[in-house]
């Protein structure tokens, strides 16, 4: 029996961050580059839909959506350096 290799955490994290940026759910601070949550429910739903329909190789659709939500949960709505 063949086992599918799971992608490493950094790869999944980068993929999820890229997907969230593409969907418009997060954006980067212009001065410091930190990711900031746009708090747009439609963009969040779009990111989850994309993750479910086109998961990263090695992830199930459920794992892909969970990865996107984990990254989104780790992002605040303010840049820590702008305070």
What does this structure look like?
- By secondary structure, the chain is mostly helical.
- The chain has a domain at about 35-75.
- It is built from 3 helices and 2 strands, in the order αββαα.
- The protein has helices spanning about 10-25, 40-55, 60-75, and strands at about 25-30, 35.
- The protein has a two-stranded antiparallel sheet.
- A hairpin with a 6-residue loop joins strand 1 and strand 2 (about 35).
- The chain is globular, with a radius of gyration of 14 Å.
- The termini are far apart.
- About 25% of the residues are buried.
- The model has no long low-confidence stretch (mean pLDDT about 90).
How are the SSEs placed, and which strands pair?
Layout: H1 9-23, E1 26-28, E2 35-37, H2 41-53, H3 61-74
Antiparallel strand pairs: 1-2
Summarize the structure.
By secondary structure, this protein is mainly alpha-helical.
> What's the helix count?
3
Q: Could you name the ranges where pLDDT drops below 50 across 5 or more consecutive residues?
A: none
Number of strands: 2
Radius of gyration: 14 Å
User: Main sheet?
Assistant: 2 strands, antiparallel
Report the structural category.
mainly alpha
Beta-strand residue percentage: 5-15%
Distance between the termini: 53 Å
Give the overall pLDDT as a whole number.
Answer: 91
| Strand order in space, largest sheet | 1-2
**SSE pattern, N- to C-terminal:** HEEHH
**What characteristic shape results from the CA principal axes?**
globular
